[in-house]
Amino acid sequence: MNYSALWYFDHFGLLQGLSDEQKKCVEQHTRMLHLKRGQTVYLPGDPSEHVYVLKTGAVKIIGKAPEGSEVILAVLMPGDIFGEVALTGDDEPRDHRAEALDDTLLCEVPRDLMFRMIEETPAFGRHVTKLVGLRLRTVRMRVEELLGKSAPARLAHAILDLAHQHGIPDGGGVLIPLRLNQGELGKLVGLTRETVNGILHAWRAQGVVEMDRRSIRVCGAYGNDAVRRIDDVD
Predict the structure, then answer these.
(1) How sure is the predictor about 1, in pLDDT bands with cuts at 50, 70 and 90?
(2) What is the spatial distance between Cα 6 and Cα 105, in angstroms, rounded to a whole number?
């Protein structure tokens, strides 16, 4: 079934307080983007002219560590807003890359339209600010978790965060339907692919996690019990 940009804005609570005329502008001036896994939304240096609403699929935000290696700053889920640097109004180019982690559908919103709606409708502006703030808080918490934690603990908390955000409970535990390979998991937590492989091998042997090319499963217990179970493997 095909849905309009307006349907997605409404579905994710982004029409709060908007007038009929503003809703019509959303339909007329936003663009639907269909991306395959691995396609880029934007690159470092690209102009910050649009804001994006993730409708289906997943997007990873990729930056650079001080030593030059790539780091995955966030894995976004449907309803997330990204590219928000466009809302600062200072015309700074992008300083990171956004890339489809799976087949993905996006809504591309011109920043001028977002500015106008935020200025005219405080409820809309508050909701956008809340969504952006929640994601930035998540990124900050992840960075803090990387400091002083062991490699297995870092990986455990990253996987459990993904389970809370994207997980689907099933008979075997909680399925995370994201096509994250071991190298990408490493970039989430500042570890090499070889280190991630060794940790996952030990966890698989003890029945804690399962992983293939299309998904990760946290086996058995979920939530705090799963945190303790994975941490116990360390």
Answers:
(1) very low
(2) 14
Length of the chain: 234
Top-confidence residue, 216 or 1: 216
Q: Is 30 strand, coil or helix?
A: coil
Cα 233 to Cα 71: distance, rounded to the nearest angstrom: 25
Task: List the domain boundaries for the chain.
Answer: 5-145, 149-233
pLDDT (tens digit per residue) in 40-58? 999 999 988 888 988 889 9
- Decide which of 3.20.20.70, 2.60.120.10, 3.40.309.10, 3.40.50.720 is the CATH code for 5-145: 2.60.120.10
Q: Which two tokens stand for residue 154?
A: 């870092």
Amino acid at 94: R
Q: State the DSSP code for 16.
A: T
Sign of CA dihedral 9, 13, 18, 20: positive
User: Model-level pTM?
Assistant: 0.78
Q: How far is CA 38 from CA 55, 131, 223, in A?
A: 17, 25, 31
Give CA–CA dist 125/212, Å, rounded: 41
Q: At what angle do helices 193-205 and 151-166 cross, to 10 degrees?
A: 80
pLDDT in tens, 93-141: 888 899 999 999 998 988 888 888 888 888 777 877 777 777 777 777 7
Contact between 57 and 100 (Cβ < 8 Å) = yes
- 92 CB-side CA count, 13 A: 10
